[in-house]
Amino acid sequence: MKYASIGLVAGGHSGEGCVEVLYNNTLGTVCSDQWDDNDAQVVCRMLGYSGISMAANAYFEMGSGPIWMDNFQCEDHETSFTKCSFNAYGVNNCVHEKDAVVMCNV
Predict the structure, then answer these.
(1) What CATH code is carried by the domain that includes residue 96?
(2) What is the mean pLDDT of each run of 10 residues along the chain (106 residues)?
(3) What span is annotated as the signal peptide, if there is one (predicted)?
């Protein structure tokens, strides 16, 4: 597996924004299909936050790179977003208007 990391971009404050994934040295996004609080909890925990205040889609500025993950599903116990299930990297039927966003508790 190629190295992947996750972060938040385009949020107005620390701990919020569009979920962005760096995979194979290219920044891309996560589709909000199937996106829920469990998924957002895992992302927030990975970034050092205690939890979420909101999980949504298209609340902030949309991403522009590839949509790396679709049908992203976590059970809230995963220690890394790569342990959650999703279509293969880059396999999606999504548009950037449905990019996943999160607001973590800071």
Answers:
(1) 3.10.250.10
(2) 75 88 92 92 92 73 88 91 92 92 88
(3) none
